Protein: Thiol-disulfide oxidoreductase ResA
Amino acid sequence: MSLRLFSLALLFAVTVNFSTASAQDAPAKEASDKEAVKESEEKKDPFAVPEGTDERILDLFLRRLSRMAPEERTPEGILQHFTKLDKAINEVASREVSEDIYLNAIQMRLQVLQILAQFGDNTAIVKQTKLLDQMKRDERPAVKELVAQLELEQRINGLAAATPEEKQALIDEVGKKLAETKIDSPNFGDQLQAAMQVARSLEGNGDEKNAIVAYKKYAEILSKKDHPQIGEVVKRMESTVRRLNLLGNSIEVAGPTVGGGEFKIEDFQGKVVLVDFWATWCGPCIAELPNLKGLYEDYHDKGFEVIGISLDEDEEALMAFTKEKDLPWKSIFFPEPEEQGWDNPIARHYGISGIPTAILVNQDGKVVSLQARGENLKVELVKLLGPVEEKESEKE
Structure:
């Protein structure tokens, strides 16, 4: 069974794109009667749960609720809206409804409770815990499967605080399920997603060692499944392992630069070099530029260099942006369309799946950081090049 959670985006929609259904083949009425009916419908509580257990009616009701936006976009208004949603959804789940309706309702309610907790409802976590306990006592196979998936998600989300033994146990457990699931099984997508979540969570938490173990294990399992699309997934996993293994090793960076010329990282031998995967369309990349420019100004004379690797697709626009922002360093850009964007050869070689990705290389040509952004970059530069002397203007 694949989880079919109502989208949080829908739950928090700004606009409502649905029309109110009207009865078909209704007998003709006088104009006054029509106005009375219209006025009555307008006054009807949109959170009122339809009577009975008709699956079609309740399904439409839940879908309509998922598209409703808060009338007031204030914390109080949002809290009130989702409190009403929770009450209505709970009413549906409490009835003797079909398994599908029950599953949709409880999945939707879990998300609503999560939002309520974020907006300061102190009872939401308690309600969520009670709901999960109730689900665990449910003997229906589909509910048991949902509980197992939710518990797995909780364990993945808690990897940052897990012990080494717990991390290894989760890596192995997810790998076992991935290996046992046939590629044509309806559950294969869920198992693959779980494997990717485990590996990426470990990577995102800075646990490169266990992330490498996870990516290698899952790539080996997937390589035994005969499917062309799976082959591409395996390649990306292997490329990611190559990047994570860079710590303490050399990085290969070479290619044509914007506006002409060639670059090889050996050109900066003996320097501290930041290899910055970025693009002009990347908001976080642009937000990092002031910090990067400031540190470049402070440390360039001490031996700090930057080489950008652009994932753009328009060289002229990239050149214009570089000039507008007065970027003092060069960026590698491949002129061939098939080597641009996410198909940049260096990005593919190192499994770059998100930008900015900033890799710092020391004076010996060895990678010392895979997350050299913001304060992390400043800390690493102080380690390698020493503190910057305080400027006279800052002393005053």
